[in-house]
Predict the structure.
Amino acid sequence: MATSPITRTRSGEVRGLVRPNETVAFLGIPYQANPQGNPYAAPTPPPTWTEPFLAQSYGPSAPQPPDSDPIIPQVIVPPGPAGCLNLNIFTSSLDGHRPVMVYIHGGSFTAGSNAFPWYEGSPLAADGAVVVTVNYRLGVYGFSPLNQPSVGVVPNLGLRDIVAALEWVRDNIAAFGGDPDRVTLWGQSAGAVAVCIMLAAPQAQGLFQRAIVQSSNPEALLSQDDAALVAQRLALGLGAPQGDDLTLARYLGTASSSELMAIEAAMAASVLANPDPTAWGSVALNYLPFAPLIDGDLLPAGPIEAAAAGLGNGIELLIGYNTDEFNLFTIPSGLADLADQSLVEGLAGLRGLEPQALGAYGAGPEGTNWGAVWNAMMTDWMYRRPTLALVEARNQAGARPSYVYQFAWDSPAYEGRLGACHALEVPFVFGAQDQPGARVVLGDSPPGGLSPELRSAWLAFAKTGVPPWPAYQTSDPVCRRFDAVSENVLDPFDQAVLGGSVSVGGSARADAPSGPSGQPGPPGTGQA
């Protein structure tokens, strides 16, 4: 293969580069025009060019606050003339019709980039997929709480960017050896929330046939009332009049990017420090002041409600969660060690849980590790329960099969306290265990067979719509539990919590962790 392969898109030729494993990468390709002069502009067709576009380095990242993550640092590519609305493609050949996997990164809708080294797609490309990783607008640019089209500020532009990327894939991916009729939309954390939304978005229908959802909270959305509260905080930061969305939209249009990034960071810190529902609405439950807004258009309803109405029924779904998701946010920071009974009971009350219900997460009359209780409760209510609620809604509406997994391998990092935390599965799925920063969370000797097992399962689903375990049914809630030794387990929505899953063979796992993750749950219902 040539060292600089060239293929032709509708915009013109693009020149890629060969990776060490003999796959080809095309980096930083614009999938829509750079909205110069108006960062709130609706998606527009991509530019065209007459000379080959040099797709050999990552494109600019979306504007975002300075990185403050001590454990999973971001990679932010500085602004450039082509703008941030770009994508990367990894393929083993320019010929053929291989399944396409379009990845949407996480980052709380305010951070992240397709240049992050954990998202290197060449291992999956070598396995037989065409991998696409997408940038989209973030924060106030992508998820404004305002809907003021008369001055060009509308919500959910980040979601509209994803739709535009899927349209680009439909129109161009055959030139990279991909099959436009076998597209799997795939995301983690905030990216997974976006995938859940796309299942029902009218504008995304027909653009993908399968979906993979890793560690999503499909309830992490803004209602109109939530948006009004976020707008108040935004106006306060900008010095704009309260309650006048039109004027606030004009302020947004003239504020500098650096000013807006500082306000975003301050708002995120404020809701974390004081998650008061009277001030923040449901943002107090998910900590995301900039998030998709239920606008009656692209997002007609929340994903669970939409699934219950039968929207997205024709799409096959692979979905799951990590068994210690919330540990990522409390163990490295030391917050878990500061948690006490008052804090945890107060947070439980926000979710309608009585103090006695915390026994399901390891609380007891004495000697309680309240940090562990906090982590178990938040993992259950922010990730596991919404995940299974979405699957149950799809099953009741007669949707195509949903396949559920748990990622349960406990990291030895942080003296073994990190557990199977949020984002821990990402380097395994991408085959990125040796990429920069991965060993910080994986430790020195991650199990060698876990990455090939996950990649094989994800690729089998992308190829056929069927991974190597049964679909999840209410009457037979089987899911795949990925660990150093993986197995099928039962994870009934209204009973088990986290590590309390029961082996299909009929006995609990002998090596299941003790404490909160091994307890039965109460009934009912983060790139990190």
Summary: The chain is about 30% helix and 15% strand.
